[in-house]
Amino acid sequence: MTLTPTKFDTLLVANRGEIACRVMRTARRMGLKTVAVYSDADASARHVREADEAVRLGPATSRESYLNIEAVIDAAQRTGTGAIHPGYGFLSENGSFVKALEEAGITFVGPPASAIAAMGDKSAAKARMANAGVPLVPGYHGDDQDDALLRSEADKIGYPVMLKASAGGGGKGMRVVESGDGFQAALDGCRRESKAAFGDDRMLIEKYLVQPRHVEVQVFCDRHGNGVYLFERDCSVQRRHQKVLEEAPAPGMTAELRGNMGDAAVRAAQEIGYVGAGTVEFLLDADGSFYFMEMNTRLQVEHPVTEIITGQDLVEWQLRVAMGEPLPCSQDELTITGHSFEARIYAEDPEQDFLPATGLLTRFALDLEGAGLGADQVRLDSGVESGDAVSMHYDPMLAKLIVHGPDRDAALATLNRALAALDVQGVVTNRAFLMRLATHPGFKNVELDTRFIERNEATLFAPRTYSMEAYASAALIGLHQLAQECESDSPWDRHDGFRLNAPHTIRIALCDPASVKAADSDDAVVIVEGKRSAGETQWNLTINDKTLTASLQPLTGDAVAVTLNGHRRRLQANRDGHVVVMADPSGETRLFWRRIDAIDHGHHEAESTLTAPMNGTVVALLVEPGVAVEKGMPLMVMEAMKMEHTMTAPADGSVDTFHFQAGDTVNQGAVLLDFAANDSATNQ
C-alpha cells in the first residue's frame, strides 16, 4: 500500500528517556511543536518537562502505558498531532500500531507496516534475504516449534547454537546453548522472556560463530525509490547480547568490504519496500565473510556515532522523509570524518552480574571544562537530570556518552577523559566497568568479537589492587567531604580531627567495598595528621610506616586536586555513603572509608539471608519447598527492566518457605524465601 505523505507541524514522541528528549530537540529546531506521553512512573521525567505538551497514558507498567496503542493514538488526537515518532523500543517495530495510525490519518515516522512485518518475523526475513542475495548464517527458521524438533535441528547444526526470539530484538529472548544437555532449559527461558517482551514465544536457531564481530550498516530509504548506506558501526562489545560500547567506522574495514556490506544492506532494505531509517546487522567472520543477522526497522540506540562521523542528523532525515521529501544526500555525497565511540551509561551493578539498580540520582553532571574537553568532542544524550528517580519499570539505560576524534586512538583517549568527567551519584552505574573496557589492551588493539567481555572476564573483573596514592587520596577526599557536611562553624562540631594546640589526628581505615564483611577486612589504615595555617590545612599521611605530605584543593563541581609529595592530580570525586569514588582518565577507584577513632555503624557483617537484589517481579518458582537442592541450583526467577534474573541456592539444603508467588512485585532487599542449609554446608 502506498502511503500519502503529509506535512505536519506537531510531532508526538511515543517513547521516553533519552531518545524522546533527542527527538524533541531536533523537532523543535525544525520548528515543530512537540508532545510527550508518559506513564505514572514518568510524570516528572525529563522528556515530559522538556515537551511543549504532555499527555498521561496510564499506570507504570508498559502494557498499560507506552504499549497501549489506543491511549497513544488518543493522545495524538487530543493534541492535534500530525505525526508520531516511535523512538526505539516499545511500539517502534509494531506493525499493528502503524496500521492503526494509517487508519487514524496520522503519519508514522518510520517504515510502512509491510516492511515491519517482513523483518519482524525473523524466520520469514531470512527467506526474503536469501532471495535478495544477502548471505545468511546456517540455521533453522521454520514454523514447526515442537520442542523435540527444535532440539533435533540444533543437533544437526552443531553446538554451540544461538536461540533467538523470532519476533524479538535488543537481546531479549536470546541464549547461547553450548551443548544438548542445556538446550531445554535455555529454550524454556527464552520462550518466557520472549512472551513477556513481545507476546510471541516462537524461536529460531542459528549456528553460533565462535569469534565473530557484530558490524551493522545504517541504511536510509525514501518514498522516491532512493536508498543509501551511511557506513557501518562495530557493536561487538556486548553483555547478555546487548551492546555496551559502539564505534564508527568499524576498525579494519577495507573500502571493498565496506562497499560490499553497504550494498547488501541497501538490497535488504529495498527487498521489503523500506522507507526511513533502518539498520541491517551482520556477523563479520575473521576471514572477511559476513552474514545477515537481522534488520532493525527503526532508529538504533547507537545512531549518534554515525551522525558524528558523517555530520548528518538522522532524526532530521527521518522527519523529512516522513514529510515526503527525498533523501538529503546521495551515496556519493556521504563521507567519513574521524572516529566516534558511544558508551551506554546504565543504572546497573556489573560487580553483581549487571543487576539493574534503582534510586534517586542526587547528581548527574558532565564537567567538560574541567576535563579540558570541548562540545565538539563530547556529546551526552541523556533522559535524566540531577534529582530524577530511576524506577524498576523500564530499561536501565540513563544516557549515552558519545565522543569524536580525528582517529580511533584519539577518540578512545577522549572517551576515557569524558567518562572520568561524568559525575553520577545516588545510583550505581556501569561507569567503572566502561572505563575498564575502554582502557583494556585488547580493546585498544582491536581484538574484538561478540564474546570480548566473556573472554576477558578474568581481567575485567579481577580483584582490585590499590596503590599508596589511591589510599592516601581516598583518605583525604572522604575527610574533606565529611567536613563539608558540617553546617556549623564551631570547632567542636568539626570532623577534621581538630585539637586545641595540637595537630589534628585522625585514623582512617580503607578497603575494597566488596570485602566489607568484618573488622579484619581493612586493607590499609591511614594515620592523618594536619596543621591548619592561614585557612589551609597541610597533612602528613602515614600508611604502612611510610609518610607522605599532602594537600587537597576543591575545584569546580565535585572535582578536587590532591597533591601528594609534590605530585598534583585532578580527580572527579564524591562520597556515596561510606564509599569514596574517585575517577580520572586512567579509571575509577572505589574504596570503603571509615574512621576507626569514632563510632561507625556502617562496617558490619554481610547479610546471610537470600534477599531480592533489585526491585522486580517474580516470574517463576522453580523448586518445591522441602525438596533437597544443591548449592547453585536455580530456585526462582525474577524479572526487572525487561531482563530475567535467576536466584540460586546459597548452599546445599532446601527451601522452607517462599514469601512471594509468580506475578508478585518485590522491592530490593525483601526476603524472598526461608532457606535451610544442611548442617555440613553450614559448618564449612
TrEMBL record:
A molecular function (GO) term: metal ion binding
Domain of life: Bacteria
Transmembrane annotation, as ranges: none
Cross-referenced Gene3D superfamilies: 2.40.50.100, 3.30.700.40, ATP-grasp fold, B domain
PROSITE patterns, per the entry: ATP_GRASP, BC, BIOTINYL_LIPOYL, CPSASE_1, CPSASE_2
Lipoyl-binding domain location: 603-676
Keywords: ATP-binding, Biotin, Ligase, Nucleotide-binding, Transit peptide
Domain Biotin carboxylation: 7-458
Reported cofactor(s): biotin
Pfam families referenced in this protein's UniProt entry, alphabetically: Biotin_carb_C (PF02785), Biotin_carb_N (PF00289), Biotin_lipoyl (PF00364), BT_MCC_alpha (PF21139), CPSase_L_D2 (PF02786)
Pathway given in the UniProt record: Lipid metabolism; malonyl-CoA biosynthesis; malonyl-CoA from acetyl-CoA: step 1/1
Catalytic reaction(s) noted: N(6)-biotinyl-L-lysyl-[protein] + hydrogencarbonate + ATP = N(6)-carboxybiotinyl-L-lysyl-[protein] + ADP + phosphate + H(+)
Domain called ATP-grasp: residue spans: 126-323
Function per UniProt: This protein is a component of the acetyl coenzyme A carboxylase complex; first, biotin carboxylase catalyzes the carboxylation of the carrier protein and then the transcarboxylase transfers the carboxyl group to form malonyl-CoA.
Subunit and partners: Acetyl-CoA carboxylase is a heterohexamer of biotin carboxyl carrier protein, biotin carboxylase and the two subunits of carboxyl transferase in a 2:2 complex.
Name under which the protein is recorded: Biotin carboxylase
Provenance organism: Vreelandella glaciei
